[in-house]
C-alpha cells in the first residue's frame, strides 16, 4: 500500500514537471532576483507565480542555462530602488530598466561588479546622485545610456576605461564640471576611440571643450554638447574627426572664431552652433556637401554679405541664421537649391530687393525674413507658401499692410 502511494506521489510530481522540485535557476541569481522583487513595486505578475525565474520563466528575465543573462523591463511601471544586490548577477550581459520614472535612488557602485555586461540602459528613470566610478570596470560595455535621469556630480574619469563603448548617452541630467580627459594617472573620454555617439547635451557641464578630447583616430558620428555651460572656443582638433555627421554645440557660452577646418567635416549633415557668443567671420561651410540643417543663429559674427555657400550646398534643407549680421542682397540662387524647405533669416540686415527667382525649390515651405531692410520684392508666380516680410521697409508703404507677406507672423513661424 505504501509503495503504491509512493508511486502515485512520484507520478504526480513527474507530471507537474521536474523543475518544480529542482529549481533550474542558479541559487545566487534566484536570491538576487527575489531581493530586487522585494525592493520593487509593479513587477510582472509572472514573478509571483514561481520561485524559479529561469525554469518557470519570469517575464523580462532571460537566462542562459541556469544563469540570468538579461533583464528587459523597459516601460513596465517599476517603482523603487535598484539595490546593490544587482551586482550579484555576474553573468548578466544586458540590463534595460529604462523609462520607469518610478525607479529612484542612486546608482550603486556594485553595478561595477557586472563584469560581463554589454548593454546598460537606465534612461528615462529618476535616478539621482553621482555616476559611480565603478562603472569604469565594465570592460565589456558597448552601450551605456543614463540619459534623462536626475544624475548630478561630474562625469567620472574611469568611464574612459570603457574601451569597447560604442554609445555613451548621459544627456538630460544635471551633470556639472568638465569633460574628463586622460592624464598620466587617469583615463578620460578621449580614449574612447570606438565611440560613435557622445550625447552629453542638456546638462550643466562647464569649462572649455577640451582640445585633447578629439583626434583623427576617433570615430564619432554624433557629438551633442548642446545646452550646457561650455566656455572658450571651438577646438581646432574637432576638425580632425572626419566621421562626424551631427554636430550640436548650440546653447553654450562659446566664444572666439570658428576654426576654418570645420569645413573638413564633409560628412556632417546637421550643424548647430546657435545661441553662443562666437565672433569673427561667419564660418565657411563650402564643400560640406551633405549638409541638410544649419543653424548659426544668435551669435556675434562679423557683418557680412550672404556667403557663397548659401548657393552651393546641394543638400541644404533648412538654413537658420536668426539675429545675425547678414546684409546686402539675399542671393536668388539660394531659393533654387533643390532640397530647400525652410529659410529662417529674421532680424538680419538684408536690404534692397528680394528676388526669389523663377527656379524655386519645390520643397520650399517657409521663408522668414521679418525685421530685415528689404525695400522691394520681385515675386515669381511659383512660390505660394509662407513668406514673412513683416518689419521690412517694403511693408511700410501705403497699401502694403494688406499684402499677405506683410502680415504679422502667426504661430506658423515655429522654430
Ligand atoms: C551562454 O553561456 C555560455 C557559457 O558561459 C557562453 O559561452 C555563451 O556565450 C552564453 N550565451 C549567450 C547567448 O549569452
Ligand atoms: C528630475 O528630472 C526631471 C527631468 O528629467 C525633472 O522634470 C525633475 O524636476 C527632476 N527632479 C529633480 C528633483 O531634480
Ligand atoms: C583641413 O583643413 C585645413 C584648413 O582648412 C587644411 O589646410 C587641411 O588640408 C585640411 N585637412 C584635411 C585632412 O582635409
Ligand atoms: C535667438 O534669440 C532670440 C531672442 O532670445 C530667440 O527668440 C530666438 O528663438 C533665438 N533663435 C534661435 C534659432 O536660437
Ligand atoms: C534650377 O535649379 C536646379 C537645381 O539647383 C538646377 O539644376 C537647374 O539647372 C536650374 N534651372 C534653371 C532654369 O536655372
Ligand atoms: C528683432 O526683432 C524684434 C521683434 O521680434 C524687434 O523688436 C527688434 O528690434 C529686432 N532686433 C534687431 C536687432 O533687429
Ligand atoms: C544695402 O546694404 C549695403 C551694405 O550695408 C549697402 O552698401 C548698400 O548701399 C545697401 N543698398 C541699398 C539699396 O540700401
Ligand atoms: C516704417 O515707418 C515707420 C514710420 O514712418 C518708421 O518708424 C519705421 O522705422 C519704418 N520701418 C521700417 C522697417 O522701415
Ligand atoms: C486693405 O483691404 C481692405 C479690404 O480688403 C480695404 O478696405 C482697404 O482699403 C485696403 N487698404 C489699403 C491701404 O489698401
From TrEMBL:
Q: Keywords of this protein's UniProt record, alphabetized?
A: ATP-binding, Glycoprotein, Kinase, Leucine-rich repeat, Membrane, Nucleotide-binding, Receptor, Repeat, Serine/threonine-protein kinase, Signal, Transferase
List, alphabetically, the Pfam families matched.
LRR_1, LRR_8, LRRNT_2
Kindly give the InterPro entries that the UniProt entry links to this protein: Leu-rich_rpt, LRR_dom_sf, LRR_N_plant-typ
Name the GO cellular-component terms: membrane
EC numbers on record: 2.7.11.1
The record's GO molecular-function terms, alphabetically, read:
ATP binding; protein serine/threonine kinase activity
* SUPFAM superfamilies registered for this protein in UniProt: L domain-like (SSF52058)
Localization per Swiss-Prot or TrEMBL = Membrane
Put simply, this protein is called: non-specific serine/threonine protein kinase
Q: Which organism is it from?
A: Pyrus ussuriensis x Pyrus communis
Amino acid at each position: 500500500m505504501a509503495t503504491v502511494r509512493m508511486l502515485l506521489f512520484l507520478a504526480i510530481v513527474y507530471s507537474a514537471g521536474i523543475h518544480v522540485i529542482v529549481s533550474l535557476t542558479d541559487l545566487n541569481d534566484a536570491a538576487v532576483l527575489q531581493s530586487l522583487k522585494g525592493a520593487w513595486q509593479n513587477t510582472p505578475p509572472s514573478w509571483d507565480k514561481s520561485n524559479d525565474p529561469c525554469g518557470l520563466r519570469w517575464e523580462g528575465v532571460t537566462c542562459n542555462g541556469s544563469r540570468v543573462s538579461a533583464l528587459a523591463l523597459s516601460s513596465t511601471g517599476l517603482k523603487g530602488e535598484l539595490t546593490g544586490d544587482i551586482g550579484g548577477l555576474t553573468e548578466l550581459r544586458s540590463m534595460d530598466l529604462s523609462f520607469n520614472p518610478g525607479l529612484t535612488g542612486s546608482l550603486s557602485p556594485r553595478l561595477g561588479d557586472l563584469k560581463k555586461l554589454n548593454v546598460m540602459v537606465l534612461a528615462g528613470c529618476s535616478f539621482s546622485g553621482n555616476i559611480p566610478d565603478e562603472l569604469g570596470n565594465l570592460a565589456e560595455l558597448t552601450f551605456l545610456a543614463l540619459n534623462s535621469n536626475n544624475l548630478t556630480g561630474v562625469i567620472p574619469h574611469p568611464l574612459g576605461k570603457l574601451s569597447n563603448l560604442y554609445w555613451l548617452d548621459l544627456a538630460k541630467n544635471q551633470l556639472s564640471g568638465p569633460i574628463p580627459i586622460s592624464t598620466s594617472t587617469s583615463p578620460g573620454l578621449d580614449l574612447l576611440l570606438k565611440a560613435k555617439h557622445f550625447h552629453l547635451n542638456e546638462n550643466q557641464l562647464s569649462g572649455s571643450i577640451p582640445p585633447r578630447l578629439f583626434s583623427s583616430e576617433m570615430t564619432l558620428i554624433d557629438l551633442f554638447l548642446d545646452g550646457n555651460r561650455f566656455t572658450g572656443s571651438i577646438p581646432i582638433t574637432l576638425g580632425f574627426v572626419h566621421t562626424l555627421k551631427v554636430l550640436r554645440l548650440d546653447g553654450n557660452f562659446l566664444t572666439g572664431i570658428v576654426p576654418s577646418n570645420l569645413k573638413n567635416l564633409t560628412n556632417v549633415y546637421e550643424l548647430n552652433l546657435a545661441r553662443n557668443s562666437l565672433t569673427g567671420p561667419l564660418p565657411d561651410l563650402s564643400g560640406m556637401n551633405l549638409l541638410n540643417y544649419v543653424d548659426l543663429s544668435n551669435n556675434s559674427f562679423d557683418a557680412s554679405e550672404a556667403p557663397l555657400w548659401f548657393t552651393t550646398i546641394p543638400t541644404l534643407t533648412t538654413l537658420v541664421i536668426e539675429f545675425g549680421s547678414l546684409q546686402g542682397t539675399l542671393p536668388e540662387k539660394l531659393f533654387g537649391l533643390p532640397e530647400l524647405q525652410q529659410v529662417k533669416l529674421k532680424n538680419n540686415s538684408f536690404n534692397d530687393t528680394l528676388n526669389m527667382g523663377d527656379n524655386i525649390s519645390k520643397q520650399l515651405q517657409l521663408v522668414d525674413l521679418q525685421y530685415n531692410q528689404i525695400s522691394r520684392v520681385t515675386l515669381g508666380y511659383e512660390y505660394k507658401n509662407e513668406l514673412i516680410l513683416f518689419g521690412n521697409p517694403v511693408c511700410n508703404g501705403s497699401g502694403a499692410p494688406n499684402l499677405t507677406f506683410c502680415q504679422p507672423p502667426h504661430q506658423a513661424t515655429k522654430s
